[in-house]
């Protein structure tokens, strides 16, 4: 059982015989179940080459191991099967911050670790001899006699006073993972099992409890019935609805809707730890803000934490966010940035300079990130880029990159890729996206709040936590962009740069043309094609995309110590033209995990033509986005649209303006019909 | 079935043989079930004296009836049992405004009414011969042969094409009312029966529907799953939670929690009319306000309607109210007042001058209303006063008045009382309180928003709708009052008076001392005692209460055309001292429905004494309120506290400061213990 006084984490030692499937269970549980997002998996250090296959580990040479041992870098170390193993000493820091840490260790060191007097529990993963023998033989790492030797070690009991949970991983993988999660939840103090109730509560986080639940009276005494659940170390508050029928819900269980299970990445049967939700500590700060006062970092931090933990009702959160949208002075943006950085994922780089590039978005196409990162990385700057998936647009950078490589990387893998190729292009969902983002997006978007100033804090806090020292920001500006005019763009540019400066970060915000798409394709596959043409220096590569990418890469390279001021763009051009950028891109793709590129877009396509002759005066970005979404992008990665004509160009009646790609004729018909109900291209007769 | 195009009301004709209990069912349904709050009960006009007993009606002389008939004041008229009957013509206006109107009519006129081509339905209330004979004989209005004659009329069928529902009122009254409500709901188009689900959803308005409900797909296509239900003509939006188990909820039903049934005054089995909730028409106006724009009357009106109908999610409503609390310019207060007046209950008085008195409240005791109204009414001014019950305080004016007389009067009864006694003191719950108040109070209070400027619109809109022409407002001001300082009080005074002027209402706002209670008693019974002492000119009547009441009555009388300017207070004093005010109070009490006054407070009591000697420097109003609430007031009307010492007075150690009254020794012990944990009276040593 973990202590009742957070922050006090738990070190969960995963033990079990070879072939029981410890590593697989741990990795799959952490990769596939969002409930584990606050859990830290610590890799063992082993004196075995990294590419030797089998269990995941951090490889270390014998001599490095000796050095680390002397400098106190290990929490504990041991020998097994002729190799040397260790756990890193910084686990202590994670535990002090209240985190749950998983470590795959040998049973024989459990007693020694117990002597360290850390809060620990043991989960023993087991499987029958037959199953283990079968698994071990497929590893091909050991001889049959080795395998037989391992299979003898079976009966084992954790030292006295240490909680010991057993997981039988002898059935299929999913059963094993579920049993593992349940054992983990019990180790973390969970005692109230989750029961799936056949009620769909929509996006609202509701926990159903029996009127006869032991906490009933204590929860009803609250101003509003809310329960705090501990999900493997992450606190979260659920609104309570009471059930008065034991056939529906047993008095000792907590009922959750399927959507809640899936949103929180929980499974039925997992026990949670419950307590009446304490009042939000940020309530006084929130009320101060509503009454027009300015908040400082600590005040913002309390509110941000409470919103992330769902401690406020929606009326309070809505009122707070509307208030931020209207009144957030420059200093408050700085304070809010610092407060948000506290909950952002931290990354540490032992480099004096870590660069990044960010776009305020809203512009279709404009997929320059996949060109900028390899150029900058090819020069040798560190650029760990985390991008979003599309939410309302036809593609996000992560959607397009996902065609080339795996983008769902955790912090350890990001470190590995960046160490190997100076840069990465990964999805921000596991890296920099926070529960606070989910909670606020669900309110800011439907209310259409002016979130520009808030977003400065959002962006910079994540960069700050991720160790970024130099940042270039793209501010597409135009009547249909997030920044509607030069005035707003200028205001935001100055705010970004000054807040960055106050936080010790060099920020350069560039106001760019947000009146038309950049590049030709809109949709993952078509954008990927444009990017490959630019990286490959193909003659028909979209010029505007190439130019914009070089501008941004150049701005970043201007900061490089070995590039003369103002010569960044020249250097960028050289890296792109000479093929170094392309080679670097391939290196990044390989390290992230290469995927087979899909072939051609479509296969169905149709052209939308000019209804009259004239000069293209205006492109309706919103309409173009809608049309591109209707083709099926980004879900259907082969769908999208391809611009044929550009703004300012003269077209004759009947000449194609853009081409639609869909995966079915019926979708194509529907999109064409919609496209013909209006004009995405406005033609001016000359 | 009512039309799908509101506003288009429904005239429900209630027919049935004498003794079936039509009037009783209608009256009880309307008095006891909040779901009927939008239904209008039209009283028949009968050429029979008003005090003749039996069914409720508006009495009219034969000659007045003839005149009204000639001037077209009747929708329809008929003869029965030697009397003449009629329905008022203004029913057409109510129907045009989409209201459901109930009318008790003779079966033989249904055909004639049908020819008027209004939307009508018929509910026939029946009972067995035996039961009807029994009921009729207790009326004592008719002879046995009359009764027998009536009991012959039984079989009857509404004319073709008119919906005809039958209610068997032959069991007990509650069963009859439930059957009547179900028939009424069916007449109003209800087709989805309410099923009580054993889930407590708290204050949230949730409708449970089966995943297999016919509207599932249409509702799921909405941005958020919400259903609009029509409750006897009142639209209301419920958040939808889906149930995936036919044993819990049949696919054709709507599940509601017990608390929802009770809040909306619904009963299980009543059918509702459902449709996917259309998007709130006020959403653009709400967003404009969130972005800092000012709104006009129409925009406010759309948002106010949508909030009252629960069309917005809480985040939107919270954001909107927080925005109003921070930014509401003077003109917006006027526009908001006009918008809110549209949904307020309207009252019409054919008098050039209708006065009223309002208090911003927050001060314990200070129950001057029960003194001011009779004084002003005794002079001859019309003063129809609607007051609140206590929400967080130990008593509201309506709580105290409820000791003397019935306060739960509807508009018709208010008119009757005021016509008879010039004034009334009734609960505002059925008169001027709106669903919008419920929705906003639930957010403004927990968020502790500064609602002072909003409340000007709230107060004045109701007075405007109620036909008030002259209003005096009490603004108690002090560090613990709603208005904390003179600056805020002055600002609000000027706002109230100028907004009133813009709306054609004379408003005088008086800033009063809000640093200590007025009167001695706190709690319904103790306050009633103080009031009777003042009205009875008893020598030990609390001076401060008498003075404040005379000030406010005087201010109102200053406006009377037959009182010389500045002589209002003198006139008020004469009316009070001479006993006219007391007599008028008794008249009001009689007309509202006199109640037997409970005897003495308590019976348990204890004194809290001065811990040291000194001058009473400060009285902690909040603490005093808490202590008074702890005694059980206002629920326990005999509980409360009595001030013995006043601010500024010198007391010796051990001398009593105030006396607590409770209904049990254990409560008394608990309150005393709490009272001794701190000092409600601050003593300054001299």
Q: Report the largest inter-chain contact.
A: A-B, 43 and 42 residues
Intertermini distance of chain A: 78 Å
The CATH homologous superfamily name of the largest domain in chain A equals Nucleoside phosphorylase/phosphoribosyltransferase catalytic domain
Structural class of chain A: alpha/beta
Overall geometry of chain A comes to globular
- The tally of strands of chain A reads 28
- Regarding quaternary structure, how should these chains be classified? homodimer
CATH topology of the largest domain in chain A: Pyrimidine Nucleoside Phosphorylase, Chain A, domain 2
Q: Regions of chain A with pLDDT < 50 over 5+ consecutive residues?
A: 1-7
User: What's the average pLDDT of chain A?
Assistant: 88
What is the radius of gyration of chain A computed over CA atoms, rounded to a whole number of angstroms? 27 Å
Largest sheet of chain A: 6 strands, mixed
CATH second-level architecture of the largest domain in chain A: 3-Layer(aba) Sandwich
The overall number of domains of chain A is 5
Residues in β-strands, percent of chain A? 15-25%
Q: How many individual helices of chain A? A: 25
Query: Spatial order of the strands in the main sheet of chain A?
Result: 12-14-13-16-10-15
How would you describe this structure to a colleague?
- The structure is a homodimer of 686-residue chains.
- Chain A has 686 residues and is an alpha/beta fold.
- Chain A folds into 5 domains: 10-187, 3-Layer(aba) Sandwich (Rossmann fold); 192-276, Barwin-like endoglucanases (Beta Barrel); 283-327, no CATH class; 355-592, 3-Layer(aba) Sandwich (Pyrimidine Nucleoside Phosphorylase, Chain A, domain 2), CATH 3.40.1030; 604-684, Aldehyde Oxidoreductase, domain 3 (Alpha-Beta Complex), CATH 3.90.1170.30.
- Chain A contains 25 helices and 28 strands.
- In chain A, the strands form 7 sheets. Chain A has a 6-stranded mixed sheet. In chain A, strands 2-7-1-8-9 form a 5-stranded parallel sheet.
- Chain A is globular, with a radius of gyration of 27 Å.
- Chain A binds chain B through residues 198-204, 208, 211, 223-225, 239-245, 248, 287, 290-292, 313-323, 325-326, 443, 446-450, and chain B through 198-203, 208, 211, 223-225, 239-245, 248, 287, 290-292, 313-323, 325-326, 443, 446-450.
- Strand 14 (234-243) of chain A pairs antiparallel with strand 11 of chain B.
